Amino acid sequence: GLRYEDVRREFRRLAQHLDWPGEATLKDFRHLFATAMANGGVPEHERRYLMGHAPGREAIVVYTHLSKIAEHYQVAVQRELAAPLRVMVQRVDAVAPASSAA
Q1: How far apart are CA 8 and CA 3, in angstroms?
Q2: Gap between the Cα atoms of 46 and 70, Å rounded
Q3: What angle do CA 67, 34, 61 make, to 5 degrees?
Q4: What residues in the chain have per-residue pLDDT under 50?
Q5: Residues near 36 by Cβ (< 8 Å), separated by ≥ 6?
Q6: What whole-number distance in Å separates Cα of residue 94 and Cα of residue 47?
């Protein structure tokens, strides 16, 4: 199973590669994601879904569908998260051979 310590260690490695300050936390990464999605034009109801928040009870939420969420997400990631995504992909590529050998 995945332990929080494993997640925290990987986050520290990513933060170093991104030249983030030592005080950066996983919550800061969550804030980056939320901000990038907003800046990338992802509508609020879709951001709520992606962040795991309750959708809300307003009528607009009930009658709004997530039919374009994949498209909106992809555009936002390409516009706003290109550098962090490159670092993450490099890290996954570096770890993958070790994981598959186990």
Answers
A1: 9
A2: 10
A3: 40
A4: none
A5: 76, 77, 79, 80, 81
A6: 30
Prediction pTM value: 0.71
pLDDT score recorded for residue 71 = 94
SS3 of 29-96: the string is: HHHHHHHHHHHCCCCHHHHHHHHCCCCCCCHHHHCCCCCCHHHHHHHHHHHHCHHHHHHHHHHHHHHH
Q: Three-class SS of residue 1?
A: coil
Residue 21, sorted as left (phi over 0), alpha (psi -120 to 50) or beta, turns out to be beta
Task: Give the closest residue to 80 by CA, choosing from 37, 27, 16.
Answer: 37
Residue 12 in tokens: 């520290």
pLDDT digits (tens, 9 = 90+) for 86-97: 888 888 888 876
What's the chain's average pLDDT? 86
Q: What is the pLDDT, as a whole number, of residue 38? A: 96
